[in-house]
């Protein structure tokens, strides 16, 4: 979370400055009788940038900010990007992995300047299809670096030696691993940028153990993850003796601004900023005019943007340890040793295809990394249920003519590798009359992965399609009862079911009866979330959604079976933990 150690001070300063901007508006109304009205523009800005934005806005208002004869008042608030993201996501009816629910008092601003374009991209690719932030162009930049205590960095050859992410990964995976931390990347843009860079190296195609290395990297980072940035910073050494340094945090992905601010307080052990190659996506502070605001406010927002792209604003950024959007810095910038100018790193492509920096992050890779992280760092209890009806024999042209069955089993197998031994997982298959008159077959009962991982892998390898039809409703009801009967508190208890068809069991329960029974047996004190992944063009999303609307969870449908691996990861990552 971008709640830096200096965020409280910044927020206090912003509060004072916002009042000043409003006061100047009063002055302007007296000085400019031509004003025909007043536009109040609310601007939510990442805490470290907020004072610079507010100072520029106050100056702009003082000089007579107006649009078409209407005066403008600007209220700038220092906000954590994750809080605004939760609010915007709720407004658009989507859920972002790891973000959580918006607070009941949260209000969506007119203009949002988060610390990274990845927030805009996550909202867009997460299902907020109506989310279309205007502009989205960067107004500041802070490179993402690997922060190390200077004695640790010196031992590795800093500042003379240049480092790569591959070399950092070697340090993380050595016999005496470098203790590496991260701020929860589902809630922190710098953490996400570091995660993407490290896992891209760990999971590089062609390596014989790419998947294993990627999971190992995720778990190494998770060992010292923090929900809050100040907590992570507090794990760096607080004394310069070798014992303290050896037992403290040795490396973390942070912003350059974080390192400058940390060192400005003269800690016992300063941090070195390592600019690793390839350069990770920087914090690029996009200026997003949120959809749905009044046209007059949108016009005012566009004019305010112009006030935040001047040479004078570049110097205001420098005073806050931030760079201009082009990666260069203004007067007074206290550059860390070895800091490049300009700083590299491609931003996320804009969520609306607009004017923000392009080239950079692949939305699918980002989505996959977030989902993989969420699975690898959480624990749960899950029953996986795989359709083995005859239609699963259909071949998938863009998967090398593998069958739907083979593609589905491979997706489940890859997902299994992400679950650590704290998970409990079971495996069923289903069709019609698979075991006598019963539509489902238990291959492995739900149990701890610590003692049955090999059994699950063997069972997955044994799955073959039957000649039967799709006994969906009976199987869902039986699976729900199974998970509920041995429900475990403090964990997400869930069912993940893969199918490529509609219910075809005329001898089983009807859809209406299934929904009645689920409503009857569901228990708010013992929730069971049902995730259904539909494959191919014969699936009815409405049919699947009628089930998950009762149980909680979600229905996901794709006509391309090769997409189910990513859908599986995303579906698991979006499960809600018990309240």
From TrEMBL:
Residues 381-572 form the VWFA domain. Residues 325-363 are annotated as: Disordered. SUPFAM superfamilies: Periplasmic binding protein-like II, vWA-like. This is von Willebrand factor type A domain-containing protein. It comes from the Bacteria. Residues 335-360 have a biased composition (Low complexity). It comes from Micromonospora citrea.
